[in-house]
Amino acid sequence: MNFKGRNIVSITDLSREEIEYILKVAKDMRPFHDGGKVSKSLEGKILATFFFEPSTRTRLSFETAMFRLGGNVIGFSDISATSVKKGETLADTIRMGDAYADAVVLRHPNEGSARLAAQFSTKPVINGGDGAGQHPTQTLLDLFTIQSEKGNIDGNHIALVGDLKYGRTVHSLAEALMHFDVKLTFVAPKQLQMPKEVVEHVRASGLELDVCDDLGKVADVADILYVTRIQKERFVDVEEYRKVANIFRVDMELLESTKDDLVIMHPLPRVDEIAPEVDKSQKAAYFRQANNGVLVRMALLQLVLTGVGL
Ligand code: NCD
Question: What pLDDT, on the 0 to 100 scale, is given for residue 1?
Answer without folding.
Answer: 84
